[in-house]
Write a structure and sequence with these properties.
The protein is an all-beta fold. It has three domains: 79 residues, no CATH class; 108 residues, Immunoglobulin-like, CATH 2.60.40; 101 residues, Immunoglobulin-like (Sandwich), CATH 2.60.40.10. The chain is 0% helix and 51% strand. The protein contains no helices and 26 strands. The strands form six sheets. Strands 8, 9, 11, 14 and 15 form a five-stranded antiparallel sheet that branches. A hairpin with a 5-residue loop joins strand 12 and strand 13.
Length: 299
Amino acid sequence: YEILKNGTIYWEFYHNLYLPNQYSDNEFIIDKPKNWEILSVLDPTFLPVSYEGGNVGDDYIFMNKSSASFPGWWKFIATSSNFLQEENLETSKNNQWGISEFQTGNIVQIKAQINYSSEIPKGLDQTFANLTIYNPEGAIWFEDSAVPLANGTVLFSNFNIAAQNSTGGIHNFTIFWRNSTSVGGLESNFIITHDSYFTLLRPDDAKLDNSTGGSVGDIILLRLYLRDSENNNSVSNAILSFNWTSGPVYMVEIGLGIYDAILDTSDLGALGLYTIVVTSYKIGFENSTFNLEINLVKT
């Protein structure tokens, strides 16, 4: 089976139909789950055949003697309901439900519901639901399994967000459940937000007080290092921008968390004290700002 993008469960399976030599005018009745809808039936020669039943609510497929001509492996294609729905999914922060953005120090829990249109499968205590959370780089960050309650509720274990075990950004997660005839699966996400900070790397003379000097026409290399202030990791793929005479300027990342911009002071056109305000933006990190003063004097 496969869970399609729209959440529908898509099935392909085979059934071996045996026809004794001494019998003719055969008919087949095959049991099926009531929440399945049969889309097509192909005989062993891969030709589609007609059938009765097979709709949602039916518990059978019937093929009369005109259709049931060949023994062998028959192919069936069907869809079924997804017993995990996004509207029944909740995340909590410190026992407060309905929150999907978290910070260091928070205790998080995820809750889901096994049902479809108020239909709750029987025997849930004999099944498991599996949770897998991925960090922004796509690696598995947390896994858990839980037995659904009789009312369909699934409560996964709490987990703590710490500075050293997390990074800022979108954390995708999947929940998967199944029994012998039904499947539930969904994808969702939450955001962990960290603080960030700048370190000035260039110009050298501004490292002490974030102020540099020169004359009109000088070229200034501005280089900043953006890091996660909670674990000192580099913050890559952020958007760093500042206003210049020509409009917004976007800095270029030249290495992990290191961003460059070339400032041509001839654009400023006159002597004086100018302040460049650089702002960072990335999902999962608080915006940071950095002020560079440029003092243009007559030489």
